[in-house]
Amino acid sequence: MKHTFKLIFLISLIISIFPASCSVGGGYWYYKTKSWVDSAKRVDGKVKELLEVENETNGIMYTPVVQYKYKGEIKTYTSNVSSYPKPYNEGDTVTILIDRENSDKVRIDSVNDLYFGVIMLGIFTLPFVVIVLIAVSVSYVLMRFSREVKNDSQQELLDTTQN
User: Fold this and answer.
1) Which of 50, 79, 94, 117 could disulfide-link to 62, CB 3.0 to 4.6 Å?
2) Within 13 A of 147's CA, how many CA atoms are on the CB side?
């Protein structure tokens, strides 16, 4: 029985590699995005339209198309992220982030556009973290309990043999 608890503990530790890797990857992804945001050029843009995107599970979602001026040129950016409800209205002013080295790398300065992937990775990883923590905790408690029961039964055996 003691080996079963150790096996559960060992399997839990092995399984914990997945959420640990996801957490490290998510942290790195966040750090890289945050560093990029801090160094990006900011310009104002206007939401020209909201593209309607049909989604099987959520119905219609909206993707903002933003027009902005950069280095004298009028440019258009279509967000990579669709959402419901509408994130903006047509005519809204939004901040556009432009990479200083590659002006084709553009994002809307919003949590949805910048950190959606990191947030989804965290949401996906969270149940694994909870399961691993519960399994490790339960197996540790059971190992300790079985050790105490073993010590108690050894003490009883010693007591009965001494009498």
Assistant:
1) 50
2) 8
DSSP, res 102? -
Give the range of the structural domain holding residue 124, as residue numbers without chain letter. 2-6+21-145
Q: How many domains does the chain have?
A: 1
Helical axes 111-162 vs 17-39, angle rounded to 10°:
150
Domain contains 134: yes
59-70 sheet: strands from edge to edge: 73-78, 59-70, 41-55, 93-98, 106-108
Task: Report yes or no on 154 lying in a domain.
Answer: no
Residue by residue, pLDDT tens for the chain (163 residues) are 557 767 777 777 787 788 888 888 988 999 999 999 999 999 999 999 999 988 777 688 999 999 999 999 999 999 988 888 888 999 999 999 999 999 889 999 998 889 888 888 888 888 888 888 887 788 778 777 776 666 655 556 555 666 5
For residue 161, tell me if it sits in a domain. Answer: no
**Is 15 among the domain residues?**
no
Give the bridge partners for 74, in sequence order: 69
pTM of the model: 0.69
CA distance readout (Å), 71 to 75, 98, 115: 10, 11, 27
CB neighbour list of residue 80: distance below 8 Å, 6 or more residues apart:
113
